[in-house]
Records
---
Amino acid sequence: MLERFIAITADFSIIIPFIYLLFKGKIPLTISDKLIYVYIVLTLIRNIASFVTMMLGVYNIYLYNWYNLLSFGIIAALYFQILNNLYFKMLVIAALILLIAIAFIDYRTLLNVRTTEFNRFSFNASGCFTILFILFFLYELIRKLQVKKLTEYPLFWFSSGALLYYSGTIFPYIFIQYTFNNLANRDLYWIIDAVLSIVLSVFLCFSIRHMKHQKTV
Amino acid sequence: MESPYVIIIGTGIMLIMAMFIVLFVMYYQRKQIEQQMRVKDMEAEFQRKLLEVSMASTEAERRRIAQDLHDDIGALLSVTKLTFNALYGQLGSKDQAERLAKQVREALDETISHVRRISRELVPTTLERFGLPAALQEFAAKSISSHTVRITFGYSGDENIRLEPKVELMLYRVAQELINNALKHSGGTNVHVQLSLPPETFGLVVEDNGHGFNLQEAHTRPSPGLGLDSIEGRLRVINGKINYETGPQKGCRAVVELRQLVLYEKAKKRDVEKAQ
Ligand SMILES: Nc1ncnc2c1ncn2[C@@H]1O[C@H](COP(=O)(O)OP(=O)(O)OP(=O)(O)O)[C@@H](O)[C@H]1O
Ligand SMILES: [Mg+2]
């Protein structure tokens, strides 16, 4: 019962940053802010869609597999545009291509709407790459010192939340065949994901709170 | 299989690491920024000291030149004049010679008064003896004679209050430059200098009714003058600030303030007056 409650809370927690964004009204957003915006909207769409399909009793694993690829695309774009390091930019592009290639090894999970399986490779690959990007970004932050107050920097909040989320979910993803793709103990791992989703939403709220027109890295 | 434990422990470790990284980044970044600020402060302080030293040496140099002018050249000229007068007495009364001699004497007189004026201008003795109000008043009065602009001077507060000599000198030079700028560039007809001394807060205002200027533009002009920069530099040394209220066709009002006020000996002026 509690697990279900957490799962539902997690699904809806993304609404809070979304509403916050709407309340914030018209502010001049930086490109990073816009990409965070898109990330939030995409996550919201996934959660609503999966909730609706669950209610209707339609297969929805398909949604998750695609969401994973799309959200990684946004994150890659986010760090691609914020960092001015050529090697890093190439790494991001390589990671994106590699991820798509890896994801299509398990092509049935992407092309078959009625799939019951999570993509076996793309989740942990995207998680690893995201963590890599974030670590690099944080490293650049403390190396260049261009941001005076980290706690007032939207992208720092986003990165911290995402780092917690992706590093917390990476283990369940590594063993995805035994965890999510194994119906018997899937619920246990949903909880980890759900709790971390809530944490991420909270961090997103902080991120939005500090969005205003400002110079970025 | 044991995977549940592996996963839960692994997840825990990963989360702790992530948390640690985030906190570390925040901590380290703050430390670095603080460090950077400290270095910047030190650099600014160093710059200030450097400026102070260079300005002090300029003033010392001026004092030396003034003294040399007054003591050496001035004295020599006076001696020359005396000798010439003696020579003039012996000259007889040839018309031509008499006219030439008169010219030489006039030239000598003029030179002597020039030397006196220059050596007085180099070192503001009025300032040292009687303080800012008197010195500014004198400067304003002197400037009037040579320009078609009306200069007025007013002050409020206790005129016997003296600031640190270094501070007074800097303020005097700042006021000089501001007045000179107003005379030179403003194209107005009135310049007003207002000084407020303690017990009110200190303030020095120089305003004109000319055509004003664009501060940004004056700074970024290809070959800018030295005046505005030297004002900035002097005020940095004595921890003051200047604010220009100006714009095209709005005149110019420059307000000088001090962040902290070091009073020197009050009533020093009175002592000096008594002594004389
Ligand atoms: N009171 C004023 N009214 C109008 N313009 C002014 C006034 N004060 C300064 N300016 C403008 O600002 C410019 C910079 O002044 P600044 O004192 O730095 O240089 P300067 O007077 O031209 O040269 P310097 O002071 O080195 O002899 C001037 O050229 C003038 O255009
Ligand atoms: Mg000038």
Note: Residues 125-268 of chain B form a domain with the Heat Shock Protein 90 fold (CATH 3.30.565.10).
---
Amino acid sequence: MKILVPVKRVVDYNVKVRVKPDQTGVDLANVKMSMNPFCEIAVEEAIRMKEKGLAEEIVVISIGPAGAQETIRTALAMGADRGIHVTTDAAVEPLAVAKILEKVVGEEKPDIVLLGKQAIDDDTNATGQMLAALLGWPQGTFASKVEKADGSLKVTREVDGGLQTVAIALPAIVTTDLRLNEPRYASLPNIMKAKRKPIDAKTPEDYGVDLSPRLEVLKVAEPPKRQGGVKVESVSELVSKLKNEAGVL
Amino acid sequence: MSVLVIAEHDNKTLNEATRAAVTAAKKFGGDIHILVAGQDARAVADAAAKLDNVSKVMLAESEPLGHKMAEALESLVLSVAGSYDAILAPASTVGKNFMPRVAAKLDVMIISDITAVESADTFVRPIYAGNAMMTVKSSDKVKVITVRPTTFEKAGDGGSANVETISAPDAVATSSFVSEELSKSDRPELGAAKIVISGGRGMGNGENFSMLEKIADKLGAAVGASRAAVDAGFVPNDYQVGQTGKVVAPELYIAVGISGAIQHLAGMKDSKVIVAINKDEEAPIFSVADYGLVADLFKAVPELEEELGKAGY
Ligand SMILES: Cc1cc2nc3c(=O)[nH]c(=O)nc-3n(C[C@H](O)[C@H](O)[C@H](O)COP(=O)(O)OP(=O)(O)OC[C@H]3O[C@@H](n4cnc5c(N)ncnc54)[C@H](O)[C@@H]3O)c2cc1C
């Protein structure tokens, strides 16, 4: 079995981003970048499947600026086999990403495409589902458990009411939720080894996909600021304030 | 202009999030139709028909639709999509699951989790865990949108639309429902509760959550949690409030033993009144709390239960 894992380079989850004063976006200058945490979970899951003998090859792909190569290297150091870097400085929307991935799937013919459920920068939560639709594949999104059966996967999904388990025939799309696994750190020897693993350099033109955005960003603004309030001294003061001042009890 | 809203429900009752989506739909002007996709979901369709401003309800029923299978929902929605300018669904785990499929098939970009409709083509949505609000203008022919339920008023009743039965698409062979494990609770649903009390890693273990449950039962509140509390196995995944869990905006949110990471704040900072109980006075949660109590929760929470009792709860 072959697994394709698309990964995204995003602002590190520990960074609190600032909106630019001219409201054209958020300030990304000198901000720490990392692999999207959900993508890390996807890479980890693919590696575990390989370690269990369920998969033979893991191909990692990232669509993004030059720096995305580092993200691919991180995945290779964790244990993926080779990378594909589709270089572009454009802000690529999930629809265009899905279209590029559709082409890549056509070339690579993976059995599973394993992705993060959402990227923590744009918070869209759509690429996996869009790719599934374009390919006409079934999907198991927000996965907290993935089990391989004959020709299919059993995916346990985190849903609003609890957990749902679905069976999906391969080839299929799986998107990861937080509880699927805890990603490993790459060891130093593996980081060194990853330097020699191949990364194919591609451009969006190679796939003939039109990247023009469908959503024009008119403005990016600060959310309404919340004022910190007061400290209360005791529980009885708290209850009295909630009752008499805030009127919520 | 006509807008299709996909109802959120559990095959028995219409979920309140649908009412929020109808309010968002109203902002487009024009006809509002509702699609109820489920199994034995007639009662849901009847409830949807009573919604204010709704002129038609379509009901499609099948086993895969009853389980909200994304593949089935995709084909159903595509079978009726042709006549609409916009298709809206609540940004629930159901909506997030199938709506991007619909968008991809229509060759349009999904507009996820909107918090405002500025006009029929311009919307506001949070990015970076709500640390920035992005206004986008869509050039697509059809707008495919998921709606953040907490930021729109709930549409009331007053309509009397017809319910029309439409045929469900054939089941897809490649995906099937296996089982589900739903949290059972007599407490209100997290997303719709007027009061939410959440616990974090500071709770120490799952048993200690019973302290919060007692208070929840006094106040008619829902119980939530931080990711750390869910990851540690204290409570099930559906308790998680935050950027990648549930977004809540109750009248009162009580955070107990939660530090206030940006990912948690993303899910609760639009609450009307926030209370934080934390023993660390430097905890970031205090910067958004209207009322902060620096205390050991194991002392403060039982006291809170007692004080509420004295106050008549
Ligand atoms: C991709 C990604 C997505 C995430 N999504 C979410 C999300 O949706 N929701 C979410 O909540 N988090 C999310 N997180 C995790 C988030 O970054 C934090 O790790 C998490 O919110 C911390 O939970 P916590 O506040 O319970 O734990 P901690 O940060 O460990 O805080 C525990 C708090 O309890 C206090 N405490 C301890 N003992 C006591 C006591 N006896 N009395 C009083 N106070 C006490 C401590 O002072 C501390 O402030 C996400 C992280 C990532 C990377």
Note: The radius of gyration of chain A is 21 Å.
